[in-house]
Structure formats: structure tokens, C-alpha cells
Model the fold of this input.
Amino acid sequence: MSMGPGMGRMGRNGFLTEEEKNNRPKVSKELLIRIFSYLKPYWKQMILVLVCIVASSLMSVLPSLLTGRIIDEGLIGRDLQKLIQLILLSLGVTLGANLIGVLESYLNTWVAQHITFDMRNAMYRHLEKMSQRFFTSNNQGDIITRMTSDIGGVQQIITNTFTSILSNVITLVVALVAMYQKNWLLATIGIIVVPLFTIPTRTAGKTRWEITRDAQECNDRINGILNETLSVSGQLLVKLFGKEDEEYGKYESANRKMIQLNIKESMAGRWFRVVLNTFTSIGPMLLYLVGGILIMKYDSGVSVGDITVLVALLGRMYGPVNSLLNIEVDWIRSMALFTRIFEYFDMPVEIENKENALIPDKEAAGEVTFDHVKFAYEPDRVILKDIDFKLNSGDCIAIVGPSGSGKSTIINLIPRLYDVLEGSVKFDGVDVRDLDLHYLRSQIGIVTQDTYLFNGTIRENLLYAKNDATEEELIDACKKANIYDFVQNQPEGFDAMVGNRGLKLSGGEKQRLSIARVLLKDPALLIFDEATSALDSISEAKIQEAIDPLVESRTSILIAHRLSTILAADEILVIKDGVIAERGVHEELVKTGGVYTELYETQFLKTARKENA
Done:
């Protein structure tokens, strides 16, 4: 099932949305066992929580019972010593109940925090193991929501829903027993009145909830406008198209509606309190009336203190009854939250280590073999068909082809970001599915077209490849990537901040820093996936100077659209529609009049002329 993140924000009202009604989770024995399995490691603490709830509920009712004795024995009986004793006892019981409540709250929070700690760790580890397919097919916002809001909501369920149900039931039972012990007739009248109290609560509560829901939707719209128009790219687009006034109009309109809804919600709450206070007075007044009649007209044995106790106990029943009427809503939301979380936990890990995965003792050579490989992201859409080639150690292969032909997909199969459907991919003669994943990926360095840098310093981004790299190694890698001059010119040197996703750097600087990071990893196989496409001519020339000796000395694969890069390869593979349409060296392929010739004339030659110019 799927519910938006907004469900968590609306989770404390007593009404279900239409979506929640239509998507009620199926509560099974297996689901409940699975939920309570997270409580199992903390069963001792949960028993203490239960003891505290029972003790606190019992003690919280005692002051109401003592009030009757204070009135009858102390005030009406004119016994000052008894009055003082009972008042001190009532204060002591109240203090004790509150202290036990504090202990219960601490234990409850401690258990809830540790359960969410366990769940977040387990979820993060599970998501780390998911294949690239998972991250390309799922919304990033939804992934983050499961990790944060959804698992965070588990704490709310444990600290509020579960313990609240238990506490309210115990308080209600104790109050009912105490009331019937005093007088069955007055107790029955009080119980009849309690359901009447819930009518205005639910009616007014539903009105407020509907307004709150509209206000939340309006707030989401405002946040959307702010995120789109005040982001780095968004504000630039607004300026370039001269849409400042239009965007201001949208924001002003949404902001005005938000203010109106807030005022409406505030006034609805005020009227709700008026109705609520009126109805809560009906019960005590009836008890006073009937109790007065019993005292004045009949010799019933009911005292003024008894009536006071019954009124106090009746007041204590309102909260628990109202909360218990919303059990269904809280229960459905709780089960839905766990169902959402378990949906992610139950997603199969496509790419994982085989048992006893191989870690070769010898130094990796970087040899790659594709043996009649077939691959598809979806069963009915085959991307690669019968891909068959071998890259010998020390050689270089260039892969070229039209956009969407499957070039990057070939690259992704080598470090097992995906697994093949048919055939095999081998690294140094061993099927990559038999190799240890960490070992395999440590031997492969990929420089992608879309460079990703963390929001930190240049040093931190470089050390991501090798935590224990020395200053000399950092300098050497940067020199090879022709980025060291740039680093030296920064006032902070290697400690200069790169900004969010490297926004403080130009495209060329980011790319060169990315290449330096891969060189620091010192892999057996180097893969450049359109690595120079984001660079200007000057930057590209510097990178090309760095790439050329690397290609000559290491096993490498180049996905490229620049002729100078392609000419450095020992063999060129031409990919079209998921198959190797042509293969050979430049001089041979350019004469065939096929796919490569077309690419050469429309793309490579044009780029080469720009390079020469």
C-alpha cells in the first residue's frame, strides 16, 4: 500500500482519510508477531513500563477518593488532625504518581528510541545492499521518508498509541470500580453521560481536522513554490525568463489562503472549547442534582464527600473514553506505518555476495570478458543482446554508439551494479557473481559524466577513495588529473570547501577532482564514461594529457564521443540497439560506411575540428 508523507503529519487526529479507509492494512498474526519481535530484546524494560503504568494509574485515582474523606471526615467532621493527615497523604500519593509517571515516560522513551535505532540501522544496511535498479526506479523522497518519518513514527506508536491504550483502559477500569463502590445509581448516571460528551468532541474535531488538512495542503503548496523558485537553479530560471512578478503572485495568493485557513482553524478551536466546556459541566451537575435529591429526600447514606468523589472520578473518565474511541484510527495508522516499513525490508536484495565468495590472492590484472551477455531492466524491454568481447590486461577498448544504445549499461555490469540475465561477465577469468563484491569494486575505478561530490572539503572528497592516503599521494593524484594547480590557488588548499554537490567548482574542476579521486584508488581497471564531455577545450586538453599515459599503462575502457580519445584505444566496439554492430580500429571502421562512419561524420569529426580550432 502507499500513503504519502502527509499521513504522519495528520496522524494525531481521530479521523481516517479516504485513502486510509480504502487502503487499510491487513492485520495478520504474522504481522503482529513481526512487530512485537522488535520489542523482544527489551522485554525486561517493557515489564517495568507495564508495572509503572498500572501503579501510576492506580495512584492517580487515589487523590479523588481521598477528597471524599477530606470533606466528610476532615471538613464536615471538624477533625483538623485528620484533615491534615489526609491532605498530606493526598499530596504524597499525587507526588508518587507523578514520579512513577516520570520513570514510566523515561523507560518508554528509552525503549522507543532503541527500537527506532535498531530499525534505522537495519533499514540503512538493507538499502545499502539494494541494486542500482532500486534507486533508479524508486522516488528518492519516498526512500528518505521511510528512513526518517516512517521509522520516526514507530517511536510515536510505542510511546503514545500502545502505552496510551493500556493506561487509559486501566484508569477507566479503576475509576468505574471506585464509582460503583461509592454508589451504583450515581455511577450509572455518570456512565450514561460520558458518551454524550464524545458527540461534540468528534463533531468539532472533524471540522478542525478538515480545516487542518486544507491548511497542510496549502502549506505543502507554499513549500513547493519556495523550493522551486528559491533554489539555485530555480531562482536563476525565474530571473532569466523575467517571471519574478508572476511567481510573487502565486506565492502571495497561497500565503493569503494559508492565513485565512489559520484564522478559521483558530476560531473553530475556540467554538469547540465553548461547546466542550458546556458538555463537561452537564455530568457533574446531574450528579450534584441526583446526589442532592438522595441526601435531602431519601436516607440513602450518600455523603457530600461521596458526591465530590464521584464528580472527580467522572472527570477522570472523559479523557480515557475519548482516547479509546479513537483506538481504531490509531490502530489502523500504526499497522499501516509498520506495513510501509516492512514493504521495504521485504524487498529482495538482487546483488549480494555468494556464500564463500572468492577473494583472489594474486594482484588483479583488470581483464574483462563478456560472454554472450543479455540484460534487461524490465522483462519486456531487452537492453543488451549477445554482447561478446574480451579486454586483455593492459589493453584499452573504446565503446561508441548513439545515445541510449546501451553503452553505460555495459559498464554497470562489470562492478555488478546489475546482474546479467543470460551469459556472464568475467573479471580476470572469474564470473563477477562468484567474486567478493568489495574486492571486485575495489579493483574498478569509474569516472562518470555526472560527477558527484560530497558537501565537504577537497581533502575529504579525495580521501573517500583511500582513507589513509598521505599528503604526497593526494598531490600526486591531483597532478596526474591536472587539478593540483587549482588546489594550490585556493587559500585553504586541500581544505577548501566544494559546496553542495560541488557547486562551488566549475564542471571541469569537478570532473578533474573526480578523476584524481579514482586515481587515488589505484584500481586495476579504469573506466571513463564520457569523462571529458563536461569540460571546455582547455580543461579537456589537460585531462587528455593525464588520460593518455593511464590508458597506455593500465587496462581501461573508454565511452567517448571525442575522436582524440577514441584513437587511443586498441579496439573500438560500436553499439547500436543493444548489440555490437561493428568492431575494429578507427581506420577500418571509418571505411565501412556503417554506424561508425555515420558517427564519425556527424559527431566525431565535428568535435575534432573544434579541438583543432
In short: The domain at 7-182+319-350 is CATH 1.20.1560.10 (ABC transporter transmembrane region fold). The chain has 22 helices and ten strands. The beta strands are 368-378, 381-391, 396-400, 422-427, 430-431, 444-447, 525-529, 555-559, 571-576, 579-584.
